[in-house]
Design a protein that fits this description.
It is built from 4 helices and 13 strands. The chain has 262 residues and is of the alpha/beta class. 25% of the residues are buried.
Length: 262
């Protein structure tokens, strides 16, 4: 599922360090210290005079460029409290079963996405593990994905470890939370103005959907604000008939990784 995300993670520069190079160990020579991992200065491959190691005086006629070597591995964490919930079958959106069906679908999708993320394999990743709301504060590593069902209230944003200052949130939404389809019955909404939504009534349905469209950016901004800039949020909407747009989700996550960590 996550083709582009895998590429982005594979190109992620976690940290850099200088490694000693051509020889079995670093050694002191007359005039300076020779790092093992170095090569001759070569303008044809893009080297500039600024790249020359000024402390490498082993051979004045052969200036050396010290190489910066990528130091992975990346420890990837997935935070998903839905994994503890019993996996239920997605039901049809009919009558009073609507809310239960929506919740079941979101739990199932959150678990599926978490498992897909855990299955990503690249040369940059050393280990991937799924944590729930009780254990995530012990999550080590460099990068964490949070798979949550809409509200992002399962994980405390005030507990941000220094090594995990940035999180990528995948907010799992059901289409009914974005735009309610017509003719699926009547159900309780929790809305003060329209507590009972009759989806067979076009006028009431249109009014309720307009409210959802107005509230969508407000709720999204509220979540980001609560995480105090430590969360990059990506939404995925589940449709009971066609599932999710996995290509769009993959591209969004890849672009977020590149933007925040490249």
């Amino acid at each position: 599922m996550f083709v582009e995300l895998t590429k982005a993670l594979n190109g992620l520069r976690v940290s850099n360090r200088y490694l000693p190079g051509d020889h079995l160990s670093s050694s002191l020579k007359v005039g300076g210290f020779i790092p093992v991992l170095s090569r001759s200065y070569d303008p044809s491959v893009g080297d500039t005079p600024l790249d020359i190691d000024q402390f490498n005086f082993y051979d004045e006629d052969d200036p050396q460029v010290t190489l910066s070597v990528e130091e992975a591995p990346l420890v990837l964490n997935i935070l998903n409290d839905s994994a503890r919930r019993r996996r239920l079958r997605d039901g049809q959106l009919i009558g009073q079963n609507i809310i239960e069906s929506v919740n079941n679908s979101k739990v199932n999708l959150a678990n599926k996405l978490a498992n897909e993320l855990q299955g990503i394999r690249t040369g940059s990743i050393r280990r991937t593990r799924i944590y729930d709301a009780d254990t995530y504060i012990y999550a080590p590593g460099n990068l964490s994905f949070i798979v949550d069902r809409s509200e992002f209230d399962q994980f405390d944003p005030s507990i941000v470890k220094p090594s995990l200052k940035k999180y990528i949130g995948i907010r799992v939404l059901h289409e009914i939370e974005v735009e309610v389809p017509a003719n699926i019955g009547t159900f309780q909404t929790g809305d003060k103005e329209i507590p009972h939504l009759d989806t067979n009534n076009p006028k009431i349905l249109a009014k309720y959907n307009n409210k959802l469209r107005d509230e969508y950016p407000i709720k999204r901004s509220s979540i980001i604000k609560k995480w105090q800039g430590n969360l990059s949020l990506v939404d995925v909407v589940f449709n009971p008939l066609i599932g999710i747009n996995s290509v769009e989700l993959d591209n969004s996550l890849a672009s977020t990784v590149k933007k925040e960590w490249a």
